Amino acid sequence: MEKALYVSDLDGTLLNRQSRLSPFTQRALNQLLEKGVLFTFATARSWRSAHVAAQGLSPSLPWIIRNGAAFSDGRTGARTREAFFTHAQREEILRRCAGLGLWPLVYGMLDGEEKVFYLNSAPRHQGMAHYIDSRQGDKRLTPVDSCQALLQGGTYYFRFIHAKAALAPLWEELRDLPWLNLTFQQELYRQEYWLEITSEKATKAQAALRLKKELGCSRLVAFGDAMNDLPLFAAADESYAVANALPEVKAAATAVIGSNEENGVARFLLQRMGEMNV
C-alpha cells in the first residue's frame, strides 16, 4: 500500500461551528493516529489557537500553522522552519497599507516569544475590534504607538480585518508582488473580510509537500473548505472538499465529502482505513 500523508484544514473543515472537534471526530482521529495514520493540520491559526480548538487530540506529526509560515510541535508548540519577511519586504507592505489608511495585525517573534502587534491609535473596523476584544488575556496581543514598532523582531504574517470594499484596493496593490502570498476571503461565520499576507515561501502547499518528502510518503491527500486551501489542493494527489465548502473549492476537489458538522473528514478516513468502530 502507498504511504500517504493526510493534511486537513481546521476551521470549516475539521472543526464544527463551535470551532471545536466533535467528540466523534476526536475519537476517530485518536484511533487512527494510534494505528500510525499520518495525519496533521494545515491552518491559518497559531499553535496556541489550534491547540485549544483541537483539545483532546493526541498529536504526533508537526502542525502547519499560519497558512504555512511555520511548523509547530503539536504537544509543546515549539516552532520550526519559520518563513520570515525581509525587513525591506515588510517595510514595503506597511508603506502600501499606510497609503490606504489600513493597519494590520502583525505577527512575529521577539526574544523567542510570539507577538501580535497592532497600532493602538489606528481606527478599528468592528471586525478588528471583535478579533482583539474576543482575545482579552492573550499575552501575544501587543498594542504599540508607532508604525515602526509593528515590525519588532522577525515578522512572518500580516492580517487585515475590514470590509471587503476597504481591503480590495490593497489586494490590487499587492497581488502582483512575487515575494508574497495573499489570501483574501470572508471570515467564517461573520461579515468582515480578512486579507492575510505571508512570504511566498510560506503556503500550506509548500509546507505539506515538504512534510510529505521528509516522511517518505508517495501521496498527499488534502481536505479543505476555503480559498486558502486551493494551493494545497493543487499540490495534493487527492483533494476532498467538505460539503459546506465554497463552490470554487468543490470545483477544484477530487470529490466532495460530508460537511464539517457531519464529521466528514473523520468518516472519510475511517472508511478508507476500514475502521468503522468508533
Structure write-up:
This protein has 278 residues and is α/β, with parallel strands linked by helices. It folds into two domains: 4-81 and 203-273, 3-Layer(aba) Sandwich (Rossmann fold), CATH 3.40.50; 87-199, Hypothetical Protein, Haloacid Dehalogenase-like Hydrolase, Chain: A, domain 2 (2-Layer Sandwich). Helices cover 31% and strands 26% of the residues. The protein has helices spanning 23-34, 47-53, 87-99, 126-133, 164-174, 204-215, 230-235, 247-252, 264-273; strands at residues 4-8, 38-41, 63-65, 70-72, 79-80, 105-110, 113-119, 141-144, 154-162, 180-186, 193-199, 219-224, 238-242, 255-257. A six-stranded mixed beta sheet has the order 8-7-6-9-11-10. It has a five-stranded parallel beta sheet with strand order 2-1-12-13-14, with helices on both faces. Helix 1 runs parallel beside helix 9. The longest helix has 13 residues, at 87-99.
